[in-house]
Amino acid sequence: MYEDLETVPVYVCHDPIEEAEMIAALEQAGIRCILQSFEDSAYDGLFTYGLGRSRILVLEKDTVRAERVVEGVARLFNQSGTDAGEETSDSTR
Q1: I need a surface site. Which of 1, 60, 70, 75 has the fewest CB within 10 A?
Q2: Bridge partners for 36 per DSSP
Q3: From CA 2, how far away is CA 45, in angstroms rounded?
Q4: Phi, psi dihedrals of residue 59, rounded to the nearest 5°
Q5: Looking at residue 42, what is its pLDDT?
Q6: What is the dihedral of CA 93, 69, 79, 84, to 10 degrees?
Q7: pTM (2 d.p.)
């Protein structure tokens, strides 16, 4: 019944600007996404150091389109000199 609702991680974000840009680009492309934060104030950044700030998940059926979108946005971040890495689904699974 819920097979089409499986989510897949497509990108690991390292700062709030990167999160906002990735989510905006995915939504503009018509792809629904979820932001899973790794921040926990009790551990004062312990998880974000190793895992990143958050990761973006999309429905499994949208994985290929979403990966293209986030790769394009990541390239723009790299060209502008931002510290965002080019991480795709291979690095988030």
Answers
A1: 1
A2: 55
A3: 34
A4: -65, 145
A5: 62
A6: -30
A7: 0.72
